[in-house]
């Protein structure tokens, strides 16, 4: 029975935390942009909800407003109400000291903690103890470092924005910018928030000042050589990607097969690449284990080199297994005939950074971008963009597909490739 009670408390804590982070993120973003702290704006918001409600009732009674205006106001009311509820959860999480102790106690009994839980615990500590305690801040930053960027981006962003809005000394990465004012996100975990155009960096506790400018890029002061100062794994990691692929190779016995499905086209320009987000159901099977295709994106030139030479471009198909392991399938593009699949994509790809677009009635099957032959080079690597998290398995197909020169030029990024990284003690297998 005691175990059950602890479990319930933990579940409650985790649910509260998720609510708190989501609520704080939704609010925090708007407030950070105005240079405010989210918590101080709750009262004002609650007042607005009430005022809107009254206005709505009065207007209906007096029969003065059109149906359209009524609809608009109802919509606003629902949104405001939802946000107010979320912020109540933030307040509850902040006020409840014993909650943190319960969670810490439970986690202490676990042999190892998932990255999500470490992240959650770090965030809860920050929410409870505030961002002033350096050890608390450091632990949270470490958890962020370990977190797998693609799959957990929403959690990470929610935590960062929420904590910054609450006055914590946390940097909010540019990828976390959400579309104000009403970016609704179902929370399906593959990062749909659209970058707003520059990171928000709240480093003074009183005023949460905001600076424009991204955290990383492909040249200059924020180029790949500097990534390590903000994202330690990028500098210190020993299994980083991309690689210069050259022999000697080891013969491998891994079987890889793509099972991609047609689905609605959803894509965005995130300021670093053009990315196509994929609906659930498309899979890569690695030795029979299914890895869900989350998204694919492009680099120009190819990040991988074959015998020291890059190709015109590469497509990275990013997959994740149920166990949370990441696998990237790389398809090299060499200059030649026009690629009909890319033609469709480029027709809809946003040329400037912005939110996800979903052109109506356009469907696409990512398998249109694959070559027939599936021989590959394979190695252990990392995300090739900050935070450069390791533990990513790469499969680079030996057979390139064509892309025309015009299509290469039509890609909105002139250069978005990280330089090749040291092989260290890794081996490249062929299969
Ligand atoms: Zn990539």
Give a short summary of the structure.
38% of the residues lie in helices and 19% in strands. It has 431 residues and is an alpha+beta fold. Strands 4, 5, 7, 8, 9, 10, 13, 14, 16, 17, 18 and 19 form a twelve-stranded mixed β-sheet that branches. Strands 3-11-12 form a three-stranded mixed β-sheet, with no helix packed on it. It has a two-stranded antiparallel ribbon with strand order 1-2.
Care to describe what's here?
- This protein has 431 residues and is α+β, with helices and mostly antiparallel strands.
- The protein folds into 2 domains: 2-202, no CATH class; 234-430, Carbonic Anhydrase II.
- 38% of the residues lie in helices and 19% in strands.
- It is built from 11 helices and 19 strands.
- The longest helix has 32 residues, at 2-33.
- The radius of gyration is 23 Å and the shape is globular.
- The chain starts with a helix and ends with a strand.
- Mean pLDDT is 74; it is low at 38-42 and 179-214.
- Bound molecules: zinc ion.
């Amino acid at each position: 029975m005691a175990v059950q009670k602890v479990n319930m408390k933990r579940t409650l804590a985790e649910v509260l935390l998720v609510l708190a982070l989501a609520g704080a993120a939704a609010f925090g973003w708007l407030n950070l942009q105005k240079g405010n702290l989210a918590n101080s704006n709750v009262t004002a918001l609650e007042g607005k909800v009430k005022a809107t409600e009254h206005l709505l009732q009065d207007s209906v009674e007096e029969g003065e407003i059109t149906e359209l205006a009524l609809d608009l106001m109802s919509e606003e009311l629902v949104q405001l109400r939802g946000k107010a509820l979320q912020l109540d959860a933030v307040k509850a999480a902040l006020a409840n000291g014993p909650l943190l102790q319960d969670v810490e106690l439970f986690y202490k009994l676990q042999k190892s903690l998932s990255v999500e839980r470490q992240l959650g615990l770090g965030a809860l500590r920050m929410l409870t103890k505030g961002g002033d305690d350096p050890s608390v801040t450091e632990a949270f930053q470490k958890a962020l470092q370990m977190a797998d960027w693609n799959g957990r981006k929403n959690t990470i962003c929610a935590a960062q924005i929420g904590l910054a809005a609450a006055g914590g000394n946390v940097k909010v990465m540019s990828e976390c910018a959400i579309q104000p004012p009403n970016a609704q996100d179902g929370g399906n975990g593959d990062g749909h928030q659209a970058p707003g155009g520059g990171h928000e960096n709240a480093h003074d506790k009183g005023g949460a000042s905001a600076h424009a400018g991204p955290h990383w890029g492909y040249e200059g002061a924020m180029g790949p050589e500097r990534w390590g100062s903000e994202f330690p794994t990028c500098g210190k990691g020993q299994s980083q990607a991309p690689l210069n692929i050259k022999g000697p190779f080891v013969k491998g016995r891994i079987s890889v097969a793509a099972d991609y499905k047609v689905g609605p086209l959803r894509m965005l320009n995130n300021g670093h690449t053009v990315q196509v987000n994929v609906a659930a159901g498309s899979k890569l099977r690695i030795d029979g284990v299914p890895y869900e295709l989350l998204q694919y994106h492009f680099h120009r030139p190819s990040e991988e080199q074959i015998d020291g030479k890059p190709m015109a471009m590469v497509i990275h198909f990013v997959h994740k297994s149920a166990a949370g392991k990441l696998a990237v399938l790389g398809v090299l593009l060499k200059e030649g005939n026009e690629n009909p699949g890319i033609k469709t994509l480029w027709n809809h790809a946003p040329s400037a950074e912005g939110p996800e677009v979903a052109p109506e009635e356009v469907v696409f099957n990512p398998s249109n971008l694959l070559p027939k032959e599936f021989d590959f080079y394979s190695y252990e690597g990392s995300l090739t963009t900050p935070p450069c998290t390791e533990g990513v398995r790469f499969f680079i197909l030996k057979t390139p597909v064509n892309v025309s020169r015009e299509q290469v030029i039509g890609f909105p990024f002139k250069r978005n490739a990280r330089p090749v990284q040291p092989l260290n003690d890794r081996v490249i297998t062929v299969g």
